[in-house]
Design brief:
With about 400 residues, the chain is of the alpha/beta class. The protein contains 19 helices and 15 strands. The protein is globular, with a radius of gyration of 24 Å.
């Protein structure tokens, strides 16, 4: 049986949104190893679930024999991509950017192989952007860009009313130049990214075709959004991170276990290796049986991001037991912790005591059904001995038992 073209695989999983010169690219992907790249600007010290989708797409391309180039934006990160934003990004120091890049490298190693014939490589665009001569760059690269076309690009249009700085306006040229550099150094002929990057990616492919008179291709992927168009990966605590110190494997599991029914099929397609036919079977029933699909989704994503041991642990913590006639997840805790703020941190319901106190003061915490009002509240002696039920917001309920 002939091996399926990876483009068919990506389309089957509804990942592909737009492609430049699709027929040519399809033929290339079917007959040779194609070097391709995706860029990641280090805007935080962890990747999040939006990056997860891009990394899974990269992994599928690598598994099909193509060569991934991970571009870390040590240079472009000093400007900040205006795409999809209504405000100016916070400008980061070089030290912060370098720290964030080191964290990205560590997390990406879970998704891609850096050994073998089509081993992934990591590059940092600071290596060629920070030393550029501005006049030479304008003469060599800027001459190929039409300001009228740039202003019509989707990534800029949404910013024109509120104001687009010249600082940000350069971002498209920087990203296009990245593609040109990777083409010259590594033979990279394909840039991929989220669909909100279409204008920037197109500019890079166009630059190579104009300047080098050589073929270059662009492909964008679906964004991780809900059925009503909102970006997924936001909780009361903020983003859903791939760093388990920022979002615990249990919280990661719970996030996907509790997504809307309408979003389950896409998440299974985008973020797991479960075969498409099996996904269709898992999601065919629009009733309580969808919970089985959600549990499978939650397990698979934790296994990919954090490993099987953490996935199994998250399942054990989430399966729960019948506590007082009500089924809810049960957690155990060391004796002696009685301050509610400290308990929230110990249970990974808050990242710090400061955040725990903000949750309490905002009225988001209940103990045994009673709202906790004081930020320095303590358990009652009975609760400290027999355990209690803690509630965070509307969805998180835990039965806590002391060891």
């Amino acid at each position: 049986m002939a091996k399926k073209n990876v483009l068919d695989v990506l389309k089957e999983r509804k990942l592909v949104r737009q492609i430049v010169c699709e027929d040519e690219l399809y033929e290339l992907l079917g007959k040779e190893s194609v070097p391709f790249y995706i860029g990641f600007d280090p805007t935080a010290d962890s990747l999040h679930v939006g990056h997860f989708l891009a990394l899974m797409a990269m992994a599928r391309l690598q598994q099909a024999g193509h060569k991934p180039i991970v571009l870390l934006g040590g240079g472009t990160g000093m400007i900040g991509d205006p795409s999809g934003r209504s405000d100016l990004r916070t400008v980061m120091s070089r030290e912060t950017i370098e720290h964030n890049i080191s964290r990205f490298r560590e997390q990406m190693s879970r998704f891609l192989s850096f050994e073998g014939e089509n081993a992934a490589i990591m590059v940092n665009n600071a290596d060629w952007l920070l030393g550029l001569n501005y006049i030479e760059f304008l003469r060599d690269i800027g001459v190929h860009f039409s300001v009228n076309r740039m202003l019509a690009a989707e990534c800029f249009k949404c910013r024109l009313e509120k104001g687009l700085s010249f600082f940000e306006f350069n971002y498209m040229l920087m990203q296009a130049y990245d593609f040109l550099v990777l083409y010259k150094k590594y033979g990279c002929i394909l840039q991929c990214g989220g669909d909100d990057q279409w204008s920037n990616i197109l500019a890079g492919a166009d630059l190579i075709r104009r300047k080098e008179r050589a073929p270059a291709y662009a492909m964008t992927f679906s964004l991780l959004t809900t059925s009503d168009g909102r970006k997924m990966g936001k909780t009361q605590k903020g983003a859903v991170w791939l760093d388990k110190e920022k979002t615990s494997p249990y919280e990661f599991y719970q996030y996907f276990r509790n997504i809307d029914d309408a979003d389950v099929e896409n998440c299974l397609n985008f973020l797991t290796y479960i075969p498409v036919d099996e996904i269709k079977e898992l999601t065919r029933y629009r009733d309580a049986r969808m919970n089985t699909a959600k549990e499978r989704l939650a397990y698979e994503v934790v296994k990919i991001v954090h490993g099987q041991e953490e996935a199994d642990k998250a399942v054990r913590e989430s399966q729960g037991a019948f506590c007082g006639g009500q089924e809810m997840p049960c957690r155990t805790m060391e004796q002696g912790i009685t301050e509610v703020a400290a308990i929230l941190v110990a249970l990974n319901l808050a990242a710090s005591k400061g955040e725990a106190k903000r949750l309490i003061s905002g009225g988001g915490i209940k103990i045994d059904g009673e709202k906790v009002c004081a930020i320095d509240a303590e358990l009652t002696p009975r609760q400290a001995k027999e355990g209690f039920v803690i509630q965070k917001g509307k969805k998180t309920h835990l039965k806590v038992i002391y060891k």
